[in-house]
Description:
Number of helices: 11
Amino acid sequence: MRSLRAQVLALVVASVLLALVLLAYFGTRTASVQFRAIVSSTKISMDSGAPLGFDSVLAAGGIDAVRALVERDSVHAKKDTLHAIVIDLQGGVLASADSNLRGRRGVRLPGGHFSVDLGDTIEMRRLVIGGGEPIRRLHGDTVAFVFRLPRSSSAEIEMPRDVETATRRFASGFGRALWLGIPLLLVAATLLALMVTGRLLDPIRRLTTAAQGIAAGEYGTRVGVTRVSELGELATAFDRMAESLERSESARRQVMRDLAHELRTPLTNLKAQIESMQDGLRSPDATALASLHEEATLLERLVGDVDVLARADAGRLDMALTSVPLRPLVLRTIDAFVHAGRISPERITADVPDALLVHADRQRLGQVLRNLIDNAIRHGGEQVTVNVRGVRAGERVRLTVSDTGEGIAAAHVAHVFDRLYRVDASRTRATGGSGLGLSIVKALVEAQHATVTLTSTPGAGTQVMVDLPASPA
């Protein structure tokens, strides 16, 4: 039985059935015991109280005088006078104020009690009494026992016709009612179990369907809202996961398209130039070789950028974190751009204190600086000015690269660190680069336990802030 629905249904029905069987068994037994105890509690045990003086009556007139005295009591006694019943040693009723008791036979019980069989002539069948007073002859022999009973005794001293039969009848009726009710309760329990399992398994079934859809590449599949709180949390988490997978898959496809585009351009240029040389349309002179070298360098750089990101994703970026003086590193990076003719010294400045130290990888931090300055120059235009500033704030050092370029629209700011994302949709090499520069910056910065943020105002420029751990002096 592997079906969860069948297992839950069987568990609920079995639990209800067991509970009903136990209820029927213990209920019947408990009810019988209680019934017997209640019936037993109706037995009368009369204290002898003040002596009735039957010994002298017996001595004067014999047992007939005692009988006459007892039977006359029902007519002549006062209202609060007790009835009396005389029983011989064998349990026979010698005399009684109640005519229904006269002549009955009974059994002597332990403890001075008598059980008198009343037959079928009256409503009740058996009388059990105790605490009687002995009637003795003058020489001390006990002839009989006399018992005093209340006048309104019929409801108090009489027992059911047959206690055992009544008990069995009660237990039988009680048990029959329980056992007849069990099938009805089982049907109700089964319907309840079906409703519960349906409510429970519906979101699970939807989760299964959604998981199968995700496995098949249908990343738009969602579970939706469920009415079971715990499963609702699971469904919500699943939908969030599906959304994340959908975004990741969309980003992956976009990266593959963009990467193919980036690789296609230099490869096409290389192929075209080599074919022109093979066809004799162009001689392999210094200019042609320089052009081929430029395209190969571009491919090498692109492959290197992709390799850096791949190793960052796998957590395999080698980092040698040491105490790095920030100002010399910034000045060397700026000097490289000035000597390469990328920017004039008047349009790039550094504002970094000499004693400012950061805990970072010297080579990787230099790569971050080069990418940020390259982006500022590439996107800022010919008249852009770039400033590199370093400030210590507590245990952190903020390295800021700002420019006075055209800025970035707010719609693009949230995506500038995405891989192969470029603000320039035309993707021209002159203005857009490969679209991996800021992605590499983010990967390298986070690998050094630092953070990077970007703010920009269209028409006023862009600022990129890198917060690095400060190194003690």
